[in-house]
Amino acid sequence: MIKHHPSNDILMQFSEGNLPASLSIAVAIHVEMCPVCKKEIAALEAKQADNVFAGFDADSEDSFDAGLFDAITADDAIDEIYEQAPITVDVKDKTYTLPRALTRIGHSNFMQLGKLARSRIDIDDGALRASLLHIDAGGEIPEHTHTGFELTLLLEGEFSDEEGSYVPGDFMMLDGRHNHTPKTAQGCLCFTVVSSALHFNKGISKLLNPIGNLIY
Amino acid sequence: MVSQQLQTGCKPNTGQFTAMPDTPSKELADALFAVATHRDKRAFALLFQYFSPKIKRFGIKQFGSEAQAMELVQETLTSVWRKAHLYHKDKGAATTWVYTVMRNASFDMLRKMKSSREECISEDIWPLIDEATPGQHEFSDHLEDKQIKQYLNKLPQAQREVVRGVYFQDMSQEQLAEHLNIPVGTVKSRLRLALQKLRNEMGDQHD
User: Fold this and answer.
1) Where would I find the RNA polymerase sigma-70 region domain in this sequence (chain B) (predicted)?
2) A:B CB pairs within 8 Å
3) Would you call B41 and A53 a contact, using CB atoms and an 8 Å cutoff?
């Protein structure tokens, strides 16, 4: 069962469209895996619709823009929506089906470093970087912290850290105050959003730098 | 919340002189339905008049610019006109649906301002069709022929729904009309169009 959900604040900003794109994608993926948050989003949207559309508009009588009305209705065509066939990625001889939200958004080939592999999601989102992160069976990410935040959404497989174990759909938002060392016995695929380079706390940092670059 | 301000106008079609009129939910939902089924311009005029000033007000708050607020009005109402068939009453209020259409348009506009790339990803984040629409799993059971599935996927959503309902979920045309909330005549004409298209696509291979 999913135990880790986006905070109420994140859900609220998501439903208002005010969250950065890469985080919005993460929440969208979580919401499709989590009926509880899906219901919450529907309720938030209904509430926001009431707030935005309630009230009397003093200028509603004389604001009818006939030019705009004619321009819109001149074309009788409708927008057809086509279902997207799911797409898969292969990492280390395993095949994963990507969540619906990622089917039309591009991603790079996987770059491998030991048991880690990362594919960059093709989204221009300022300092935020979104990736697919694969950790092969028996792999782990060395202990690290960061100045910004790190969002990890488990898509498939399992992993655990000092706080406990995680199942697909779990949505973990960590900030600079947390240290953690995720490891996986069977392997996992995650969607991650990282806001700044990672700082490794142990070992010879120079050696770990490539991992930091891979993960950010 | 009660406004003390004296109001001199009234909402279109509510006939009420109240400070805070109730949202005419049924009228709005009916208007969306009429736009979807008949491309009804009078019904669209009602939606247009009801929502334009509200979207503009929201846009000014969101973008701090009247020009961009007007762009949001145009983007949103164009989508309402072109996507009304994606609204289903059982999914919620018409106002909520229009809000999500506006939220998506606003999100894409904000992204365009921040990024040089012209990508619209709001519908990847908030799809306007529900993936869990009935008919999805029946599909894999009955339709093993991938090729037919591919042909079906080329059909517009409205026509595909009808083909699935009649041929793969064994619904009568009347049941399907009720289920989709459209007149039986529309079911028949969509089915006819769909079969014509499928025949063209499949051509000589399947006679």
Assistant:
1) 47-112, 152-200
2) 141
3) no
Provide the β-strand partners of residue A198.
A146
What sign does the dihedral A100-B126-A189-A204 (CA atoms) show?
positive
**For A24-139, where are the E strands, in sequence order?**
88-91, 94-97, 111-113, 116-120, 129-135
The confidence band for A60, taking pLDDT boundaries of 50, 70 and 90, is: low
Distances (CA, A) of B48 to A2, A69, B12: 42, 7, 11
Assembly ipTM: 0.89
Q: Do A45 and B100 touch (CB under 8 A)?
A: yes
Q: Do A72 and B111 touch (CB under 8 A)?
A: no
Query: CA of A96, closest CA in chain B: separation in Å?
Result: 19
Q: List pLDDT tens digits, range B138-161.
A: 344 444 455 666 777 778 888 888
What DSSP line would sit under A140-164, residue for residue?
A: B---EEESSEEEEEEEEE-EEETTE
- Indicate yes or no: pTM above 0.90: no
DSSP conformational letter for B104:
H
- Candidate from A26-30, B13-17, B159-163 with smallest mean pLDDT: B13-17
Q: Which of A141, A147, A148, A146 is nearest to A162 (CA)?
A: A141
Say which CATH number the domain at A144 has. Answer: 2.60.120.10
Chain B residues with beta carbon closer than 8 angstroms to that of A61 = 9
Local structure of residue A137 (DSSP, 8 states): T
Sequence-ordered list of residues with C-beta below 8 angstroms from that of B25, at least 6 positions apart, any chain: B93, B94, B95
pLDDT (tens digit per residue) in A68-117: 999 999 988 888 877 778 999 999 889 999 999 999 999 999 998 889 99
Chain B residues inside the 8 Å CB shell of A46: 92-93, 96
| CATH number of this structure's domain B25-125, picked from the four choices 3.30.540.10, 3.40.50.2300, 1.10.10.10, 1.10.1740.10 | 1.10.1740.10
| Cβ <8 Å between A72 and B81 | yes
Residue linked to tokens 């009234």: B10
In whole numbers, what is the pLDDT of chain A averaged over residues? 87
Instruction: Determine the CATH number of domain B136-202.
Output: 1.10.10.10
| Average predicted confidence (pLDDT) for chain B | 79
**CB distance B125–A101 less than 8 Å?**
yes
Q: Is A123 in CB contact (< 8 Å) with chain B?
A: yes
- Taking CB atoms and an 8 Å limit, are A68 and B85 in contact across chains? no
